[in-house]
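Encode chain A's predicted structure.
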Amino acid sequence: MGIPFFYDPRFASYDFGPSHPFQGSRFERFMKELQKRFPASYARLDIRHAESAGNDLLELVHERSYIDRVISLEKRRGYLSIDTQLLPGSIDAARLIVGSSVAAAREAARTGLAAGFGGLHHAGPAYGEGFCIFNDVAVAAAALLGDGKKRVLIFDTDAHQGNGTMDIFIEEPRVLFISIHQDPRTLYPGRGFADEIGSGPGAGFTVNIPMPAMSGGRMYDLALDQVVFPLIDEFKPEIIIRNGGSDPLYTDTLTNLGLTLDELTRLIRRVAEKAKSSNIPLVDLFLSGYGAYVTEGWLAIVRGILGETFELSIAEDMKFVVPEERARIERVTRATLDYLKANLEPYWKIF
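Encoded structure for chain A:
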């Protein structure tokens, strides 16, 4: 039995135009490259299709008035935000991505591991932005809660903080939302500071880990070891949803986190290994990334999910970081983690 992987050629309609950094051709391009270059890895995936999400699923996290507004805007090619225009077919594709992420999450809950294309984390209860129409990650988590799960962990490793997911679950103690992302003072959406930890009954269940520019993989290891994995151990989630694409890479044209392909693989692999060793089902979702090397980044992610070692490379030199700047980055990261742990201490025994 292969690992369930949810993909549909109709994802291609999730597209924002020829001059936009997010184009729908990325999905088919990746699938063809994976099959052509690494056929043994491709053969390990059980490619599946899912049904589109109806309003009943979308309304688990989105207001009905917002869904109606989205439908109205698509008819006149309107904008959810300055960077997110609704073109014909985009809503159908968005519904399909949501349905696929829900199916992947439910399959992971049943079998232990599933993956697919997803991560539209900037869509909130009544808004869409940042190339995101409906929040498939949040809908998948809400569907799992409806299925009877009592503890769901969302680990968002996208370079951009998942503001929509955070807003949806800001008061929900059954969902532990952890986002590791570039310092919001330097990147959209400008949210996700270490003192944003949830509110009401959800206080302590929102965890934001802002990372300095050019952090690199070693600083990610610090965050995993000091914050993420200890929280997993204490929260004891019944399932982990990891979402995030290739945009932490040093080649990404919209971000500046500085991870290599090997470091991105290590991040994904460490999460997968932690889930397996803790006997926690994992669903892995990815679709972000910008510039010429999105496919390579996604291959690095799949390499991590599958625990494989096939070779990848990028024909673009890394930006050199002088030792003094590298030392400063580490000081800032350690200070941020200490500050975050102090904010979370009232809610978690581990801190």
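The CA atoms of residues 215 and 326 lie 8 Å apart.
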